[in-house]
Structures are given as structure tokens and as C-alpha cells.
From TrEMBL:
Species for this entry: Dehalococcoides mccartyi (strain CBDB1)
Complexes and interactors: Associates with the 50S ribosomal subunit.
Family of the protein in this entry: Belongs to the TRAFAC class TrmE-Era-EngA-EngB-Septin-like GTPase superfamily. EngA (Der) GTPase family.
This protein's name: GTPase Der
Annotated EngA-type G domain residues: 2-166
Functional note: GTPase that plays an essential role in the late steps of ribosome biogenesis.
Amino acid sequence: TPIIAIVGRQNVGKSTLLNRLAHKNLAITEDLPGTTRDRLFATVSWLDRRLIMVDTGGLDPDIESVIGQQVNIQISLAIKEADLVLLVVDVKDGLITPDYEMADIIRRTGKPVILVANKADNLKMGQEATEFYSLGFGEPAVISAFHGTGISDLMDRVLEELPDQPIATP
Ligand code: GDP
């Protein structure tokens, strides 16, 4: 089953996105014990494909602290296990330093990435998402996890990025 890691700094809407997908389609949301914040896993079905989505904690800016280091290790592990990374950014706040830091961490892994511009609650905000091209991951998938807009386009892109899977015959 393909694994998709949802990554981004704190408060960009990673859990909201995962919950949105989970409630629409799903299946199971299960807590696995983590260090400071649990990594949440959900099994998501989309157009007959089953995916595992992992919500990571936000990058802890206090990397000097023990807790901060553990959170960052968790994020690195989630990315390492993933077939695809969704880097979530916030249209309302725009880009700030931790977004660029997350982008660098992900870039170094060489994993395929879809940039997700969240909190685009109206059309105007979607147009402002052009700023995010500067992260170097191309065109963002513009969504509002809150309202559910853009989610099906995002999931179509997710399926396109994944290697073809043989469809199980009963
Ligand atoms: P996380 O720390 O990245 O997991 O972020 P959360 O999912 O906890 O969301 C942080 C805050 O942003 C919460 O108050 C959410 O309700 C809010 N939020 C998430 N998605 C959206 C959205 O699409 N639009 C708006 N306006 N707020 C959102």
C-alpha cells in the first residue's frame, strides 16, 4: 500500500486535511504512540486505490531541545517511509522561514513532492498561491481543508504520482 506523508510546519492544517480525507472515505484513524505528538495514520480509499496517509508533527523550531529533536526525527522517518510527500503551506500566512526549512529537508530526500497550498477559503486566496512556486516544487494544489475544496483535484494528482499498482482480482 502506498504511503503518503503529510508534512509542513505547525498550524498549516495537516490534521485538518487528514481528517477531511478520513471522514470522506474511510476507514480507520489510529493513534500510534509517538514522542511528543502522535503520528496519525489513516487508511484512505480514493477511486479504488488504498493509501496510507501519515500526518507528521510540525517541524519544531526549537531544534536544540530534546523534544524538538525527537519531533524532527519523527518527521524524517515519516518522509523516509513515504512513496510521496505532501508539503502543506498556508495561503493565509504565506511563506515563512520554517516552510523553507521543511522544503529543504524534503528536497534532500529526493522523494516526489506535491505542494499543497491550504487555507485558500476563497478564489482570491487561490490566486495568491503563486508565491509558492518559489519553493521549487512547481504548481501548488490549492485547497481548503476546512471547506473541502480542491481535495478531489489533489487526490487525482496523488494517484498520478504513484506507481501503477496491479488491481487485485477477487
Ligand atoms: P497542523 O498543526 O498542521 O496539523 O494544523 P491543524 O490541522 O491543527 O490546523 C491549524 C488551524 O488551522 C486550525 O485552527 C484549523 O481549523 C485551521 N485550518 C485548517 N485548514 C484550514 C482551512 O482550509 N482554512 C482555514 N481558514 N483554516 C484552516
